[in-house]
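Input set for joint prediction.
Command: fold jointly, output tokens.
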Amino acid sequence: MRSQRILTIDWLGALLAFLLLAAIPLVFRSTYMLGVMTVALCYGMWAASWDFMSGLTGRENFGHSLFIGAGAYTAGFLNVNFGADPWWSLLAAPLVAVLFSLLMGFPTLRLRGPYFALAMLSASAVMQNLTIIFSAYTGGQDGLNGLFPMLDSVPAYYYLTLGFLAASAVLLRLLANSSWGVILRAIRGDEATCQAAGINVTFYKIASLMISAAVAGLGGALYAHYQLQVGPDLFAVILSINIIIMVYVGGIGSIYGPIGGAILLNALTESLRGLSEYRLWVYTVVLMIILFFLPQGLIAPLWRRVRSLFA
Amino acid sequence: MSELLQVQGLNKWFGGLHAVKDVSFALQPGSITGVLGPNGAGKTTMFNLLTGFIAVDSGSVLFDGHSLTGLVPHRIVNCGLARTFQLARPFAGMSVVENVEVACLAPRVRKAGKPRERARALLDQVGLGRQAELDADVLPYGDLRRLEIARALATNPKLLLLDEPFAGLGGSEIGPLAELIRTLHESEGLSILIIEHKLREFMQLVHHVIAMDFGEVVAVGTPSEIVRHPRVIEAYLGTAQIDLELARHEGAGRA
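tokens >
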């Protein structure tokens, strides 16, 4: 069957992309370059997790940084204040992020209208301010410094991050392809019709936000143990907006597209470093060109084009 | 009690407007019942109350041994009471078969068979088998109505509520759709409650009629009783018939 064949081609494409990313440390020896890529992979986890909840259900989350910051600061507190082994962060960060998703999801996702988007936006802004107000515990603007690395070698940490990104992407994509994904896309279509079809819409929205938060929080912890520092910027609204841009550039609702978008835009930012003060200008113009001419995004439509050559 | 649905003293206010006024009626299993009434009589509001889309102010709804009062819509569907909407609302961006598959994933029917296969069988049943892979948003209106019915059937209801299934359909589409509804009733023994304006098709289809006006039930009976009922003639049929008669008289006078 054709749909079966498309699925096979999709997974082969994903494997190819994974192998290409895995080859980067073998080709490029520069530690700096690997560092940039490690950060890009973290962004990939954030963009994919945003896409799973908001891309599929259409309920925009304007404060994804809440989960990222929650995960990163959990890693920071555990490691710096309590001297816990850094590996504990990988378990604790997603749990704390999920806790935040429950606090946000229960009151706002039962309602229709913009409440969820607005509540996420304000909650992340409030958390950013709280990290500054409670500077005695959080280090204020300077944040928490001196986190321990999980792995000493930069390539090894790159592979660890790549492994978590790949596992998250596979999990999210499997869910999106399953009946769970069918329900989430139906919620995007029309919530009332979904209820008339006997679906508990609120349950699916909250559960999806929890999954989204867990992956974002995990990404936050990986980022924190790469930078060895966490700061209030991890709660910033601009981080959430950047992630949404990456999702749109990659192709919303596809999971893999936003990961491509995240890597692409991180690479673009890095390659424009030589332009110093003109960097943001060029970056913005490139973004506008992409979104104007390719409103469906770049990566996902491109892949569908490639795929149609084989299927 | 052998009633499938028992509605008792149902009330709904919208601010100062008493939209549904002390409505009581009962439905027997295996019947097709119609709800008749002019625009604004409270028919759709009553449907929304029965299906939980609007909260009941007072009164009780007993369905198949469950009290439905205060339940949210998806729970009511999973008790076996499904509905269609007056305006067909397909899931945009999804195929026709996926649209039905969603309802096959409801807890009530999740284990009734493979969702995708059940969805295909239901599409065949309502005559949309060949459109299964199309985008739902490109279907013409008549087919969207069939899609709505397939989605409601997917939840394996004991009672199906159809809100104006013939509205906006052309003459050639009405007959086959009425035939489909009749077949569902006869072959599956499905109980149906139907709101409709298209009088001729409607009266041929239903066994009993509940006539409403200004939020109240004004008459209950067989179709032939209802069309002769003075309150119904006054509220709904009256003006049209009088106009018709006037026109006939005037035409005769001129000839």
